[in-house]
Amino acid sequence: MAETSAQLRRLGTELRRLREATGRTQTDVGEALGRTKTTILNWERGKTKLSKSDLVCLLVELRAPVELRKGLEKLRQEAPRRAPQWATYGLPDWMRPLVSFEQDAVAIQTFEPVLIPGLLQTEEYAHAIHTAGRHKVAPEFIEKWVAARMQRQQRLRGPAPATLHAVIAEAALHLEMGGRAAFARQLECLLDAASSDNITLQILAAGETGYGGVASNFHVLHFAEVDAYPPLGCFDGPLGGYIVSDEGDVATMVKMFDDLSQLALSEADSAELLAANLKKHRRKATTHA
Questions:
Q1: Could you give the CA distance from residue 149 to residue 5 in angstroms, rounded to a whole number?
Q2: pTM (2 decimals)?
Q3: Could you tell me which of 203, 61, 213 has the C-alpha nearest to residue 69?
Q4: DSSP single-letter state for residue 240
Q5: How many CB atoms sit inside 10 A of residue 237's CB?
Q6: What's the pLDDT band for 1 if we cut at 50, 70, 90?
Q7: Given this model, what pLDDT does residue 42 score?
Q8: Where is the HTH cro/C1-type domain (predicted)?
Q9: For 51, which DSSP code?
Q10: Is residue 4 pLDDT above 60, yes or no?
Q11: pLDDT tens figures, 7-45
Q12: Is residue 228 very low, low, confident or very high in pLDDT (cuts 50, 70, 90)?
């Protein structure tokens, strides 16, 4: 379920309709208000609740009829004051919009140069990652962050799951996070995921040098209503992350992903390489048990 309320969704729809009627872009309106395009996008998607002053300024900027302004302010007031569901996991501010947008996405593209993608991690592996990143995750939040990661994976299941296309560098198949046995179970889970109809998995072979200029992970989220909700990008790392909303930058990220996909092994060859690595790690886990 998306991180929003019926009132905020209705308010966001009206705000988008008003903006489009003026022929203005989210970037243009954001600059006029001293806000980012992402902030405007969050308002229009009902992801974040506007303050009264923000709504007043926005409606003045969009030249909304006076009679409509009262109704929209009422919607704003009626929106729940409780923190959205993702806040209960203690996630950092920058991540909450990402996981919420992720729930609305119909297609997700992700590139990982070192680790297994979060949406495909086992609980053991995710726990090992968060424990190793204790400079980023306070010990008291590790269990909550792991639980949030497991919850996010539900978007790939159910009656209308999102599609996931993941390109993973081969290095990720050799970094034994969580120990040999746990890592073997992670590779088994990854191989199972690769057989799912809505998941495409490709491995970027270790000998491939064509992606030398891409040193960071990144993700691109695609939504059903492309005209109203263009794709969003995201980077994250040890010191945090950020959402990319500039259409030109996101287009570049899509091109980067397409290039990586072309360089990577086919799905069949990737599954074969993954199976070989799984066999090797199972043998190692048994030998050193």
A1: 22
A2: 0.76
A3: 61
A4: E
A5: 10
A6: very low
A7: 86
A8: 15-69
A9: P
A10: no
A11: 787 888 899 999 999 999 999 999 999 988 888 988 988
A12: low
What's the alpha-carbon Rg for the chain, to the nearest Å? 21
Which percentage of the chain shows pLDDT scores above 70?
A: 93
Domain with CATH 1.10.260.40 in the chain: 6-78
Q: pLDDT at position 3, please?
A: 47
- Calpha distance 264→279 (Å, rounded): 21
pLDDT at 113: 93
Locate CATH 3.30.870 in the chain.
86-287
Q: Which CATH number fits domain 86-287: 3.30.870, 3.30.420, 3.30.70, 3.40.50?
A: 3.30.870
262, 221, 265: which is closest to 245 by C-alpha?
A: 221
The three-state secondary structure class of 110 is: strand
The token duo for 135 is 């400079």
CATH topology of domain 6-78: 434 Repressor (Amino-terminal Domain) (1.10.260)
Per-residue pLDDT tens digits for 114-130: 999 999 999 999 999 98
To which residue do tokens 């208000």 refer? Answer: 33
Contacts of 22 (CB under 8 A, 6+ apart): 62, 63
Q: Quick one: tokens of 110?
A: 């992700």
Q: Using one digit for the tens of pLDDT, what is the confidence trace for 150-178? A: 999 999 998 889 999 999 999 999 999 99
Which SS3 state, helix, strand or coil, does residue 63 take? coil
Q: Could you identify the residue written with the tokens 């539900």?
A: 154
Q: Are 5 and 82 in contact (CB under 8 A)?
A: no
Cα 178 to Cα 125, 132, 183, 185, 278, distances in angstroms: 6, 9, 6, 10, 15
Task: Report the relative pairing of strands 232-237 and 218-222 from DSSP bridges.
Answer: antiparallel
CA distance 253 to 262: 14
In this structure, are residues 239 and 246 in contact, taking their beta carbons and an 8 Å threshold? Answer: no
Q: Residue 235 phi/psi, 5° resolution?
A: -120, 145
